[in-house]
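Appendix B. Raw example, untouched.
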Amino acid sequence: MGLAAAGFPRLAGLPAAYLSKQLHDLKQGGSREHPVMKGIADALGDDEIQALATTLAAMPAPKPVALSRVATPRSPGETLAVRGAWERNIPECVTCHGPAGSGVGEAFPPLQGQGEMYLSNQLRAWQLGTRRNDPNDLMGHIAKSLSEEEIRSVSQFFATLGQAGGQP
């Protein structure tokens, strides 16, 4: 579920609490901005948001693939994913988002299996301040420290992780 080519996220299997929070944040405005999704969220009542979140969470998600740490990462994106850039206070993505970016609870959604355009757009939204609904502005700080090339590379890394021709 989702349409990677259009930049739409995969929602199937995401935690219901995460999905509900995102819809409520869009509805309330201020911490997450998206003109199309704002209109959709505004049209939903609390019970509908909960029902939608529960339904999407129950849908099967792609099975996460294991991520092996290699001696020499093959791309800047893989370096950020598994090693971070600690000299710039950027932790590796897997520290918060779990093994292979498979997601941890309601605060740290899966990165693996999301489209490259969606991931890049979210990182840019944190850079620009149009998305500010993460714990302690962790992603805001990280995104503002990334170059455009790093955004593209880390997004591509997680989007292709486990796919034929992609990362291991």
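End of appendix B.
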